[in-house]
Amino acid sequence: MKKIVLVFAFLCSSVFAGTINIAVAANVSYAINDLIAEFNKTNPDTKVQVTLGSSGKFTAQIENGAPFDIFMSANMKFPENLYNKKLTVTEPVLYAQGSLAMLSSKKLDLSKGINIVTDKKVIKVAIANPKTAPYGTASVEAFKNAKVYDDIESKLIYAESISQAVTYALTAAEVGFIAKSSLYDEKMSQYKENIDWVSVDPKLYTPIDQGIVILNRAKQNKEARAFYDFILSPKAKKIFVDFGYLVK
Fold it and tell me: Where is molybdate bound in this sequence (predicted)?
């Protein structure tokens, strides 16, 4: 009888898979549902629990024991810090490259490129907080390389994450610097390229290499490993491309 019980328990554990908790950089929020749907085609019993936020804040939370299995960062710096502190199972690996776009609901002449921020009509410029969000860091770098930062620093308003920067760009500011990936979401389809948004010249900022790591909590978690492998697979890369990312 004991053997039967043990076999039944094993079968149950195989059929009813568990939940994996992933910390996901806000810029990936637009693609994550498609990614999970594709993953669940081959892993239907795995529930992927997503927490969205800024990479800097996630790093601090993970250092303080936050129960995440995987961290999908908006850059490589934060997961590298965690790896150096021996808080990850894997080394940081590039899963996609993000890019910046300028968005406005004010019908500005975006053909001027980044120099539009110096226009007198532009009172506020929204960016993600450069202290915690890599896209914010890239925005500041672009301003400095375009030699407009000193002129417009007082115009800057800071969002807690890149997704909040989208909201600010459409409500609290004349123009906002956002993740290009956000513009491929269905809810953003009303905003048209070269009318409501344009890409920021990629020569103005360092490529936004986004990194993924498995955290120590998931060392023996096969489901976490399966999701990690999926994010690096050709199927996932196609989805990232569909949302405006570059992949290698």
Answer: 55, 162
Q: Decide yes or no: CATH 3.40.190.10 for domain 100-199.
A: yes
Work out the end-to-end distance of the chain between its first and last CA atoms, rounded to an integer number of angstroms: 54
Per the DSSP assignment, residues forming a β-bridge with 117 are: none
pLDDT digits (tens, 9 = 90+) for 133-142: 889 999 999 9
The reported pTM is 0.80
Q: Say how far apart CA 120 and CA 141 lie, in whole Å.
A: 22
**The dihedral sign for the CA sequence 24, 28, 30, 32:** negative
DSSP class of residue 115 equals G
Residue 160: Cβ-neighbour burial (10 angstroms; 0-12, 13-18, 19+): middle
How are beta strands 175-179 and 197-199 bridged, if at all? Answer: unpaired
Three-state SS at 160: coil
Q: What residue segments make up the domains of the chain, in order of their start?
A: 19-97+209-243, 100-199
Strands of 69-207, DSSP E: 70-72, 93-98, 100-103, 125-128, 156-159, 175-179, 197-199
pLDDT value at residue 187: 87
In 129-184 the beta strands, taken as DSSP E runs, fall at 156-159, 175-179
